[in-house]
Amino acid sequence: xxxLAMKSHEIPKDWDRSGLPSWTYRSQAMFELERDNxxxxxxxxxxxxxxxxxxxxxxxxxLFDERAVIMRGQDGIVRAFHNLCRHRGARVVDxxxxxxxxAVVCPFHGWVYNLDGSLRGAAQPTTLGDLDKSxxxxxxxxxxxxxGFIFLRFRPGPQPSVATLLAPxxxxxxxxxxxxxxxxxxxxxxxxxxxxxxxVRDVDNEGYHVALAHPALQELYGRDYRDLYLxxxxxxxxxFFGDRPGRRWSVQHYVKHxxxxxxxxxxxxxxxxxxxxxxxxxxAFTPExxxxxxxxxxxxxxxxxxxRGYRFANESRAQRLARYxxxxxxxxxxxxxxxxxxxxxxxxxxxxxxxxxxxxxxxxLRRHHDRLRSLLPVMTQPDPPAEEGISALNQALLKxxxxxx
Length: 405
Fold this sequence. Notes:
Elements: H1 2-7, H2 28-39, E1 44-48, E2 57-63, E3 66-72, E4 78-82, E5 97-99, E6 104-105, E7 112-113, E8 119-121, E9 142-146, E10 149-153, H3 162-165, H4 170-175, E11 182-193, H5 197-204, H6 210-213, H7 215-220, E12 226-229, E13 234-240, H8 249-257, H9 266-269, E14 271-277, E15 281-286, E16 289-299, E17 302-311, H10 317-347, H11 363-375, H12 390-403
Helix pairs in contact: 5-10, 8-10
GO molecular function, one term: dioxygenase activity
Protein name: Aromatic ring-hydroxylating dioxygenase subunit alpha
Keywords: 2Fe-2S, Dioxygenase, Iron, Iron-sulfur, Metal-binding, Oxidoreductase
């Protein structure tokens, strides 16, 4: 983290403190542009290799109209495919995760796929004409693994490889031994909010609200909380704990019982650290556990919040207790953030809302908005264009932007 701090960007003295116009949170046409240019062509984390430890274990990941299945083959290799039978397009697996014994069988007509995605055979093959099985395997999806975390990208996009993109996080993830973490009993959680996804990011991308809105976090680390801004849409937030005992039960006992992790470097031994990845993902590490969470848009006014939690290998009783106490603190924080997100999103529909005026402590929010504007310059329009013209206007603005280079 010391290295990250040295490379992080300082906040400019005179910067535009406004945010995105409110119409961008309500527009269906804008939502469709975000689907194609912000989500489907950017890296998304779907799980960790420890979620699928054995051959035939699989994870599913849905994003808009795309469906993925990540599976470990008989050879131990993890691969990602479209969760789509090559016969009629049915899901070949259903649910969030599971296990296939030796093969994947489509529940619609019984086409059978090997664990490496190749087609083993079709039911009643004589009815299918001259079927070349080599041409009907499951379609692969671009996938990379970074310290055990599995990343997918449904379409080619502007981001480099995951290893290049997340290189500034490499040393810290290695120090946390992220590659060796294990899922907790019920690793996945999810909830749905009646908000635009950007309102979730607006709350999560700044620490200005911590002091008042998150009393437990303020007690734990609020005095030493800081945000670090890096290139390529990376954003690190860190808070150091242990200088005060805390008054709330969970904070008091967490500070008292959290065991020292001597294998961690000094800057991570007493910290809660959040590693952000544009457009919608955060990895959160404490000395005794880890999780990732992200917001997955469903519609302009509906967002699915989901994530997965992990523990470290050879967990001691003291680590387990600290992880439980951290979970209690994080549970309250999440509920507080969800309410703030709802209130923030409500304002985007009000005629009285005049736009943001941001604090220096909300510079992360501004950077997120700037990155969206760079991909979708139509977001620079203060007043809502006609819905049917938003896509064409965005294309024209992109061409104008390229012409100025």
